Fold this protein.
Amino acid sequence: MELTEKNIPSVAEQLDILKGYFPQFSTEQIEQYTALYNLYADWNAKINVISRKDIDNLYLHHVLHSLGIIKMLHFQDGSDVMDFGTGGGFPGIPLAIFFPNVHFHLIDSIGKKIKVGQAVAEAIGLKNVSFSHCRGEEEKGLFDFIVSRAVMPLADLVKIVQKNIKKEQHNALPNGLICLKGGELEHEILPFRKRAMTINLSDYFKESYFETKKVVYVSL
């Protein structure tokens, strides 16, 4: 589906696209995902956590993009995952809805963005999330995986979060970092090529938005 200015799917159509890709959603999950648009639209009018031009693409550009991480790894129940630089809750909140038995800790250095994430999570009844207003360098917790959405170059991110990785393993991939990235990444990945893996989201999602979108995993 080509998404031009004149051909943006409606919110209902985007939800149908989301459900088409993930037919295993429970009734509760569908209700939680459905509630996100009005919540983010309301908060975004007060605190800009999503580009105002992009709020109408919430489910394709933000929710579905966040769920692209699942194409790299399906987290085991009981896993602990930190969302580094979550902004208003991406990818952490969509992932927390999808994995109700995985704990997600969402951090950001901007307090008002954390406030939005907390309010959204509370409004939809998410019990498996926690939040911290802090810089990544200040976070002391240990996690199986760190997830992130294009917040900084890979080498800088690895340097900050490698202290936060648990030693014990219980997922299909060794503990590490999973990032949503776009564009040409060969230079970024080069220092980690022996312990990195990349997938193209265009192999899974047919919308044109995903043509250059990738998921990058680095074992830590």
User: Anything to note?
Assistant: The beta strands are 80-84, 103-108, 129-133, 145-149, 176-182, 196-200, 213-219. DSSP finds seven helices and seven strands in the chain. The first helix runs from residue 11 to 21. Residues 11-219 form a domain with the Rossmann fold fold (CATH 3.40.50.150).
